[in-house]
Structures are given as C-alpha cells and as structure tokens.
Amino acid sequence: MTHQIPFEVAKKEIAEILEETFDKVKGIYLDGGTSLFETLSTVSSEEASVPITASGTSIAAQVDHIRFYLDANRDYIRGVDRGRIDWKQSWRENEVSPEEWQQLILNLREERDRFVELLNNFEDWTKQANLLDTISAVVHSAYHLGAIRQILRVVKERG
Questions:
Q1: What is the CATH number of the domain that holds 67?
Q2: Domain count, the chain
Q3: Are 82 and 72 in contact (CB under 8 A)?
Q4: How far apart (Å, rounded) are the C-alpha atoms in residues 17 and 72?
Q5: Is residue 2 part of a domain?
Q6: Is 41 a domain residue?
Q7: Alpha helices in 30-130 (DSSP H)
C-alpha cells in the first residue's frame, strides 16, 4: 500500500511552517514571540550592527543573507539561471543606520512575500517547483533565525 500526502496538504503545511518562521508563532516549533519578524521588531539598528566576535557577522548581515538566499532560491525554483552566485555578497551588510535597518527588514519582508507567492502558485512538485528546494528555504531561514536570536542574546547581555 502506497501512502502519499496530497500536494495541496503538503503545500499548506509548508506555508504554515514558513508563516511561523517569519511572522507569527502558531506553536508548531517556536516559542511565543520568537518568529523572525517578531524578533527583529525588538532589535535596534545599533544592536543589528554588532558582530559578537571579530570574524563574526552582525544581525544585519544575517537578515540580508536570508533575503539573498530566498531570492536565489526562488530564482532556482523558477528555473532562472543566475550563473555562479556570489554568496559572499550576501554577507555585505554589517553596520546599518536606523533607516537602513528598517529598509533591510522591509526588503526581507518583500522577498519573503515573493517566495510565499511562488509557493501559493505551485500546482505540483515539478522540477521548477521542487519540494526539496522549497523546504530548504524554510529550514535555512529557521537556522538563521536561531543564529540571530543567539547573537541578539549576547549583544543585549553586553549592553
């Protein structure tokens, strides 16, 4: 007997995890108030600009990296050939002014919205809408959410 999860059910579940990761905790895997945008709303531009080690990244760099990754992943899923991707470019934002910090968050929100729109328009898991690539975007974002929360903890403790 073959057991398969219907496409629409899988798509809905991935969308739920994506929403919890970015927007609002639903109790799937995060504690209340710890989604990415909930976390970022507590971070000042000064805090976002502080790497916790000499060779480490700042929260601003982490945020821009998530945005960059979602953009690259979305293009990959759509079959857009970007050539060789310069991943170092995705870590360029380290110090930000208050205005730059708000713009960085807005840019991430817009890229997340484009990714959700892509997911909502999937009709099946084809090569262009690969299940693995979709799940990896959620997992990668969740990983960096954890890194941001750890950096933030150290930054706030140091005051």
A1: 1.20.120
A2: 1
A3: yes
A4: 20
A5: no
A6: yes
A7: 36-40, 45-48, 59-78, 98-120
Structure tokens at 80: 């857009």
Residue 136 in domain: yes
- Token pair 């293009």 is found at 75
Q: To 10 degrees, what angle do helices 7-22 and 131-158 make?
A: 10
Q: In 3D, which of 36, 37, 59, 38 has the Cα closest to residue 47?
A: 59
> Letter for the amino acid at 76?
Y
Q: What is the pLDDT of residue 118?
A: 92
- Cα three-residue angle 115-65-111, rounded to 5 degrees: 25
Q: Quick check: 144 and 152 in contact, CB under 8 A?
A: no
1 within a domain of the structure (yes/no) = no
Tell me the mean pLDDT per 10 residues along the chain, length 159.
Answer: 83 94 95 96 96 91 96 90 88 90 97 94 78 92 97 92
